[in-house]
Specification:
The chain is built from eleven helices and no strands. By secondary structure, the protein is mainly alpha-helical. The protein has one domain. α4 runs antiparallel to α9, α7 packs antiparallel against α8 and α9 crosses α10.
């Protein structure tokens, strides 16, 4: 089944509207959706290595715009919507502690959330609740999300076919590692922050 899903995703990645759907997924992931953009970014770059930098640009722009939407949820609709998103990710118990760090470490928190497996949407919503300067938030988001996607794209662009063969030969292992990292990101939010 995993092989069929991989083949389907690779086919979708080469679809003429794939870039649009990547933008939609990335925007949603930055404000509320749980699936990271790499789920589409990686197969898209493997399927179209010559478009890697364009794909990264779209992914970064959509991510930052989605982050601003998450910021808006935190600033304007925390009680109605933001709180339920934070609860969904299990971060509600320590959310006030997390908010307290913003006065001293705001930009660094955004940068860490944008670059690491920590769910970025928790950071975007918390930034809005904490009223972090929107320009600071946006710059930290562009730099961290852009760097994250650029590193993935650069590796895939440079080592395209060998990486693709490596992925295809170890698909189950890599999918397992991907979900373990995703789980660890959620665990960091729930137990550490």
């Amino acid at each position: 089944m995993l092989r069929r899903l991989y083949d389907w995703t690779m086919g979708l990645a080469a679809h003429p509207h794939a870039l649009f759907w990547l933008a939609v997924l990335t925007f949603a992931e930055s404000s509320f959706f749980p699936i990271p953009p790499e789920a589409m970014l990686i197969p898209m770059i493997l399927a179209q290595r010559d478009q890697a930098w364009r794909i990264v640009a779209v992914c970064t722009i959509a991510s930052v715009l989605g982050g601003v939407a998450g910021y808006g949820i935190g600033a304007l609709a925390y009680e109605g919507l933001g709180k339920s998103i934070i609860e969904f990710y299990g971060a509600d118990a320590k959310f006030s502690i997390f908010q307290g760090w913003y006065s001293e470490w705001g930009a660094w928190i955004v940068a860490a959330g944008g670059f690491t497996p920590i769910p970025y949407k928790v950071v975007t919503i918390a930034s809005g609740v904490a009223d972090l300067d929107l320009v600071t938030f946006s710059i930290a988001s562009v730099l961290s999300r852009g760097a994250r996607f650029l590193i993935v794209a650069a590796l895939l662009w440079r080592f395209g076919d060998p990486i693709r063969k490596f992925v295809e030969a170890r698909l189950t292992l890599l999918a397992t590692l991907f979900f373990v990292m995703l789980f660890l990101g959620f665990a960091v939010i729930k137990f550490v922050l």
